[in-house]
Amino acid sequence: MEQTNSFTLVLDTTHYNKEHKLLIDEFVGESYSFWQALKRGGVGSKRMIVDQLSPNLNHITNITSDINYANIELRKKGILIHITKGLKNFTWAIPFYQLVFYKTNFTSIHAQGKFIHFRNSKTFKENKSFFKNLMDEKINFDQQYIILPQL
User: Is 81:116 a contact under the CB 8 Å cutoff?
Assistant: First the structure.
């Protein structure tokens, strides 16, 4: 487990760990039930190709020229990015209040001083509706905290 400060949570989730589950649930909320996921049209992305990770996440990428893959899971208070490194799995938990998207020639997600860039490929394009749902959730979350200017 990597926990560089109280706002960063990157876990080795290759094997089930009850403590990791509790940490993740506390950090980004519980997972949606089967019926809730169906109503939402799904809560997980398809597998996407990772082009680049920030230097402070490089320890969870393949060292060889293998392609790195990741997928995103929507939670009630944030997202989980599941990254595969060979036979190991890592999960990066990001609460909505820390989540930032950038869309240029590629799409990247930034939070906690870290980032992940996804290749703009066919697999990424297949996730267009998932990203729309994710952005809607982020906007709904942010609207709870709109501060009106004082007159």
Answer: yes
Identity of the residue numbered 46:
K
How far apart are alpha carbons 23 and 70 in whole angstroms?
A: 20
In a domain, 4, yes or no: no
1 in any annotated domain = no
In a domain, 33, yes or no: yes
DSSP string for 78-123: EEEEEEEETTEEEEEEEEGGG-EEEESSSEEEEETTEEEEE--SHH
CA angle at 31 for the pair 130 and 46, rounded to the nearest 5° = 30
Q: Give the CATH number, domain containing residue 64.
A: 2.30.29
Question: What does pTM read for this prediction?
Answer: 0.86
Based on the structure, what is the number of domains in the chain? Answer: 1
- Token duo for residue 89: 């799995």
Q: What are the pLDDT tens digits along the chain (151 aa)?
A: 444 444 678 999 999 999 999 999 999 999 999 999 999 888 999 999 898 899 888 888 766 667 889 999 999 999 999 998 888 899 999 999 999 988 777 789 999 999 999 988 887 778 888 988 999 999 999 888 777 777 6
